[in-house]
Known about the structure:
Two copies of one chain form a homodimer. The first copy, chain A, has about 240 residues and is of the alpha+beta class.
Amino acid sequence: MNVALNDINQTEITRLRVACSNCNLRELCLPVDLTPDEMTRLEELSNQKRSYATGDYLYRSGDRFKSLHAIRSGSFKTRVLHEDGREQVTGFLMAGEIIGLDAISTDIHTCEALAMEDSEVCELPYSKLAELSREIPSLQRHVHKIMSREIVRDQGIMLLLGSMRAEERLAAFLLNMSQRNAIHGMSATQLRLRMSRLEIGSYLGLKLETVSRAFSHFQDEGLIQVKARAIEILALSKLREMVGK
Amino acid sequence: MNVALNDINQTEITRLRVACSNCNLRELCLPVDLTPDEMTRLEELSNQKRSYATGDYLYRSGDRFKSLHAIRSGSFKTRVLHEDGREQVTGFLMAGEIIGLDAISTDIHTCEALAMEDSEVCELPYSKLAELSREIPSLQRHVHKIMSREIVRDQGIMLLLGSMRAEERLAAFLLNMSQRNAIHGMSATQLRLRMSRLEIGSYLGLKLETVSRAFSHFQDEGLIQVKARAIEILALSKLREMVGK
DNA sequence: GCGCTATTTTGACATATATCAAGTCAAACG
DNA sequence: CGTTTGACTTGATATATGTCAAAATAGCGC
Lengths: 245, 245
């Protein structure tokens, strides 16, 4: 089996796609089996909204952890800066996803998050979310699911970093982007990457030249069409073969 | 900064070391700020205990998820089997740690866990734990912390796999083993590894020969003393330098 | 549109790690 | 005590990816 970067099942996709047409937090990222009253209470919790311009920090390394954030639009990257100034990207977060889960155990953010494009987020104060989920079992269950999914996601990346070679990693990355695009009702084959080759490489443990070469090679093989950050997938199934699924 | 494989702070270490002298679950892995009544209720939840012999499965890939498990003694590895039969190790779990967190989001285990030596675990039925943590805020908080710590741990490994070279990974691995040994009141410099070079390599994304060569090299440099799986750390501080902390 | 800049691509070469193949060693067993 | 077996070490070589450098391209303000 292989779970790398592909951990979201079909029912979730359907639910999210429907929910996102009315892009409110409670539907965007939370379960649909709440009573109207519970929904209202949840909505009250999450009605704080903020905008971030490209490059703005959502939080910095060392900041005190207070809230999770649901991304309503745009996208963020999370990263760690090494002593020598090198950046290591630890995640790309897209609209509809929850950001900030790393910090619950420490109270302090261990990485920093910044907007890759102009973006909007809903703030989810952790203490209120915890309080409310104590009263609403299905909400509690969902919070656990969100956290566990992050674990599964990370372990997928570990698998990928530990056992795949450059081109396989890239293939997995593209499939993941494709799938997350599809979840939000966008094309599964037309990708507009928001990140540079350098950032992709940092995320996948590769150098930017290796990323570029792999893209070029895929193009030569007729798997994709590359035009800088606009990438069209021509042979989804062959990419899937490459990562073994 | 660098969080790789070293995410447990000093207060946690102290607490756990004290707690483990009376190796009962509620103290082993749960917070100490519960009332006596709450403790009792928690104890009732966790009094199911089981033994596993070397090589026994704690759970298999595809099994339905019902419970988390607290390891009382011994150690486990978690792994994924690829189609071609290759094993990829995704984690080593030692006494005092919680195993099974990957499965909460899916209801199904995505990897399998087996005992690396004769071991004992306490079963923590998830539904009961969830129910109880709804009533006890500090327990809820702790459950979240445990989950989040797993996320941090995984991200630490991602960092390690993505940015470190073979010997740096090995150094980080040894430091991590040393620290986890110390937590349980054992020597921080005398390590008895429970896993083979192959398994270490699988976990760190290296071949077994590379692991072996790196150990030999460390020995030549006077950093460690290697006698098969018994490893003595001679220069902790130099190992720390290697991983940048 | 033009020119400036950052990003991306491509090439030649270096190097870390994988691969293949012997050997060594230690535990297990007759 | 010798044999067997599996794990570990070591060596020679191959290969994927990194490094350094230059050219091509895309993005963007004017």
